């Protein structure tokens, strides 16, 4: 590649080093056996090549040539070390450690590897391999089947919210943890907030890109040189002037490395908790305080209300239940029409509070409490206002359970209409709400002196007792 003209002219294209050394007048010289006499420009190139090669040294015929890998201390070639070195040079972030997990079968690890490589036989891959198939997803049966398990780009509607929430929680925990470094094996050098409350990967992106120790702990980047403890990030190449100045700033920020205590593990403590152990509950409450989040946690969990209903209400607050507008946003081709009133588009707020049928149900149950209710913009605001207490004794306890029973019954009615092609009248839906209230209230002895028949026929009297 350096001397293409001489390579083209030489008759010894497949020659070894011993083949191009020759004795002339008892002097060892280089002989490439050119096809013709060299032209002036070729001769000058040959002169440069001879200067670069230098005088040939006598060869040792008793020993074979030795090949050693620069990226390994061993004399034998290691495919594993070669792969790891290629990943470092190319900046490849293939999650090798994620493939092999204790307790996970090997065949599953190979399947996950095939998923990462987009090599599993999905319909689009079978098409690319020459098979004549109809490319349709076997799950939703509407869109093309590309990568069956994971979205190709994590910017779509599906999956994005989940991982954004996970990443948000990760950095919330990271910035609210105080780290005591002992053996330095559990603290990430680049990712954790251990140095002046800064993430070094973000503060020094050039050095992070050049370092071979991207996943290193603090103990991995400390090294003894001439009996002095120093930082060693193992850069891929010699640093340029701007990179060297960044490295100097980083060394000033880090200071001299202190000897690690190998007998004790690193200690992580939550700043927002007095306890030594991590608490998901306290972390969530702290995140709510930081973000000014007014999510009504206490409204989700009510005594007597089934857990599945609490999760459904949580999905309603998050606008995550599969209403027609949400299905559209997820890529499904559907006609967006409310299953209850059949007049307007179906959204979460419309289905539960703005729909004419939903409003009729709410007004029926609010009438005995003598409340003139103003329809709110969202279902979450609706629940916030429900914190106001109305009714006395039994009526107040019924008031607390009422929105859950109404929302659950509306959702069930919506699904019956969508999937079973059956419709119930408003009065039948009201009866189902009363039956739920009686079932849940019986656990707390709300209707101890009242029968289901009394609740069905004398709603106003029962509520005001």
TrEMBL record:
Domain of life: Eukaryota
Domain Reverse transcriptase zinc-binding: 77-146, 278-362
Molecular function terms, GO-annotated: RNA-directed DNA polymerase activity
Keyword annotations of the record: Nucleotidyltransferase, RNA-directed DNA polymerase, Transferase
Name used for this protein in its record: Reverse transcriptase zinc-binding domain
Organism, scientific name: Macleaya cordata
């Amino acid at each position: 590649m350096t001397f293409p003209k001489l390579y083209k002219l030489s008759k010894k294209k497949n020659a070894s080093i011993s083949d191009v050394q020759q004795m002339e007048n008892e002097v060892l010289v280089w002989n490439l056996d050119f096809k013709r006499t060299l032209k002036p420009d070729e001769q000058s190139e040959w002169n440069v090549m001879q200067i670069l090669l230098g005088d040939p040294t006598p060869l040792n015929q008793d020993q074979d040539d030795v090949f050693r890998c620069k990226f390994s201390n061993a004399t034998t070639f290691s495919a594993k070390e070669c792969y790891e070195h290629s990943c470092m040079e190319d900046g490849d972030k293939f999650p090798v450690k994620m493939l092999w997990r204790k307790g996970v079968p090997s065949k599953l690890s190979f399947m996950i590897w095939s998923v990462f490589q987009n090599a599993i036989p999905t319909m689009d891959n079978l098409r690319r391999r020459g098979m004549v198939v109809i490319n349709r997803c076997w799950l939703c049966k509407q869109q093309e089947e590309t990568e069956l398990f994971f979205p190709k780009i994590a910017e779509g509607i599906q999956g994005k919210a989940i991982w954004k929430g996970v990443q948000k929680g990760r950095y919330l925990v990271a910035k609210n943890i105080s780290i005591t470094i002992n053996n330095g094996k559990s603290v990430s050098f680049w990712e954790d907030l251990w140095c002046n409350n800064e993430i070094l990967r973000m503060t020094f992106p050039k050095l992070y890109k050049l370092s071979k120790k991207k996943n290193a702990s603090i103990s991995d980047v400390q090294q003894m040189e001439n009996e002095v403890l120093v930082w060693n990030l193992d850069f891929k190449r010699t640093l340029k002037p701007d990179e060297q100045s960044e490295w100097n700033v980083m060394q000033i920020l880090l200071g001299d490395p202190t000897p690690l205590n190998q007998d004790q593990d690193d200690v992580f403590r939550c700043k927002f908790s007095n306890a030594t152990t991590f608490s998901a509950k306290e972390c969530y409450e702290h995140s709510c305080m930081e973000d000014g989040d007014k999510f009504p946690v206490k409204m989700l969990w009510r005594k007597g209300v089934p857990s599945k209903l609490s999760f459904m209400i949580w999905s309603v607050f998050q606008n995550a239940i599969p209403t027609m507008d949400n299905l559209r946003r997820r890529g499904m081709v559907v006609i967006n029409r409310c299953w209850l009133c059949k007049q307007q588009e179906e959204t979460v707020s419309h289905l539960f509070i703005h729909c004419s049928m939903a409003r009729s149900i709410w007004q029926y149950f609010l009438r005995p409490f003598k409340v003139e209710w103003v329809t709110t913009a969202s279902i979450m605001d609706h629940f916030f206002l429900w914190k106001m207490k109305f009714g006395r004794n039994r009526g107040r306890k019924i008031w607390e359970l009422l929105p859950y029973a109404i929302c659950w019954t509306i959702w069930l009615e919506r699904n019956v209409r969508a999937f079973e092609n059956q419709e119930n009248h408003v009065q039948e839906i009201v009866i189902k709400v009363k039956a739920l209230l009686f079932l849940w209230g019986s656990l707390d002895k709300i209707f101890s002196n009242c029968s289901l028949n009394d609740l069905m026929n004398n709603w106003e009297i029962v509520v005001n007792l």
